[in-house]
Amino acid sequence: MSKQDSKKWFSPDKSDRVDSTSIKVLLDKIKSGAIKLPGFQRGAAWKPEQITMLWDSISKNFPIGSLMLFDGRKYETGLETREIISSLKPTCNNKERWLVLDGQQRCNAIALALVGQPQNNIPVECRLWIDIQPDNSTFYLTTIAQPWGCGITESKKVIGRNILKTQYKDNPQSVCRKEHGAISTHCQAYISEGNSDLFWHYPDPWIDLMHTWPIDAGYPVPMDILLSLNEGSSYNHLMSLLPKALPEEKRIKENEWGRGKHYSLKKKLLEYEVALVKIPDEALQQQDQEEGIADLLNDVFIRINKQGTPLSEPELFFSSIKTRIKGAHDYVENIHKDREAGRTLSSVQIMHAVARLTISQDNRSREINDLPRITLSRFRSLLKKDTEKNDGFLDKLEKRIARGGDNPIIGGDKQSLHKSMRLVRDALQYKEKDNSTKESTDIDIGLPLPLLAQLNWRIWHTLCGWAARYSMDKIDESSRCAMIRYALMHHFFYYSRAEEGTKISFQEARIGGNSFPFEKIRNNLDEKEYLMSYAGNRDKRHKGILTPNEYAFYATGSENGNGQELLKNTMATQILQRERGLLFWSQRQWIHKWFNDLYDPLHYSRTDDEPFDRDHIVPYEWFLRINNGGTLFQNHYDLADCIGNLRIWPAQLNRSEGNAALADRFLIGEDSQGELDDQYKFWKLNSKDQIRIASQFPLTDENNLEWLAWKEFSDLSKSDKKSWTDERTEYFIRAVNMRRCRLYKDLYDTLFSF
Questions:
Q1: Residues 447, 555: one domain?
Q2: Where in 18-122 does DSSP place strands (E)?
Q3: Is 33 left (phi over 0), alpha (psi -120 to 50) or beta?
Q4: Hey, is 669 helix, strand or coil?
Q5: Least reliable range by pLDDT among 117-121, 569-573, 575-579
Q6: What angle (nearest 5°) sits at the alpha carbon of residue 683, between those of residues 681 and 689?
Q7: Residue 648 forms part of a structural domain
Q8: What SS3 class is residue 63?
Q9: pLDDT tens digits along 26-71
Q10: In 596-704, which ranges are continuous DSSP H helix?
Q11: 3-state DSSP call for residue 61?
């Protein structure tokens, strides 16, 4: 071990406030548990490209900024701490303890070099790689959502899947990602039913990261493997550690390996020096109370944060709570990571919900106490009030957390937020019925999981507030329908950031009785003018919930959505709040079939990563570089992006279909013509009628005006897809607007038909 590796930080012979350390020492201290995060720090927030850029800077010897540390050996703070990466458990009981106040994201990115094999049946969620091509060290990150690297095209993903299929054709379960030691029921179904050929059309989240690699890399090697090699490691030893299916051309050749080259690369990375800054003793000595030091560290953290990428006010509130209350971080994380609670709220939004339940718990009058918005100043105000009386807000919050009642497995607190979130998620979610092959009018009104993940936190707070208040063990069907209607109403029509609007629903729910008070909430919000629609103009909104005729008028200029007036008006691309969410609800039966077992909101940080696309029925490419556009087309091409021309579609299917015509995608044509290939069957689409039902597209019916409009448009598109004559444009406008009006009427009928 070198002198650099063995020296102690901030030694007396150097400045007691400024120092530096190597990546090697930093990783050793992270691995041993000597460096931790204080509880008030937020979670990892960097994107993959930020992580790989940091490692690229390290490899080029560029500066990456300093880490600010607190020496926990000298001062007792009472603060809870956690590991830099939760899956990395300390290798020893290290008495040395440094807390990272600034530089957490950099520490997290550096620590990813240690992440390798799964631990305790928990699958690896990301893996850092280095391309060891000579003179071209490039870094990659593979994740559950992006197992072949970031920004990879579908065609390259197919190459990777085909390689795995060749290697594991007789043992497909080997490549499946496991949770708690078992593969998902969706994966198991294909394997147990003998549909192994269909299995190989799997989406990316099924794949275990131990079997994939960054497909754009020349000679990819996981960083944890590179760091495990020593100077005498053989070429064959390295090859044995790489994924079994990694192609021969992706494995560095033995004659290029070169004796000691791998060790030189490893040594170069590990010797990189990171600057360190320590909180000075003079500042800490003024705080002789444990609570005083904890507050000081949180204050330093907040000040530093304002200089960089600042935390939001709710994040600062949560940070302050974690400083004061032991167990707050773990309490929230237990809820946040529970799949049965939906993973639909952020950690901060969960803490906000807990705070609202706590502050309103002893009051059943109409004017209940509430905390509709959380900020640092409100935390300080609550803290000041608590000093004036016993059993104040923080005392009650600490008791709620300390009770441990938010473990729904063991029971405990009957007003548990965790238990309530499980109940609410179960109530809101779409449920399969025996008649699930029928059209949408006969199916359950619940929401598919991807739409649940889009719901605003105010919806979850209101519903959980009601369920927790009345200690629900089970939600009856009448209340379930009312809750779903409330969620849909709020999602598509609620428009306000005012605190009063946030309080109305929550207060009504907290005093609403054993049946969820949807009608009271709707009437109250309507009376206060918090329910609105864009009506084609963001600056002049329509108050209240639109009737189907009003929607049709704003969409088309005609109350029935198919009159001649629609040809003379500029159409509104979006009329509702979050109107594209209506596609998820309209197609809920099939989205549930496709993604219920696959979709985890925590895995998708970008829309491009999601396993579904918002697919244009008439391909958007057809609207670009127009050969000939009639007078009607010039006013109406924006309709290409409205919900009448969109569907939610599995990403793999969408990208394989490309810009094909309606008939080539089986939306128009006879159901008996031709067989569907395996890629459709994998997604449970066994007939062309099922493709149309799944797409919320009309079935063949000569008496259906919407189907006739699509049929005429399709026929006129056969000769030249980019020639938009007035006749062709008229049929497109007619078809798109009739479809969007039909989708809206289904929503309206659900809101008002019970």
A1: no
A2: 18-22, 35-38, 66-71, 81-82, 98-102
A3: left
A4: coil
A5: 569-573
A6: 70
A7: yes
A8: coil
A9: 999 988 888 988 888 877 878 889 999 999 999 999 999 889 888 8
A10: 633-636, 651-657, 678-682, 688-694
A11: coil
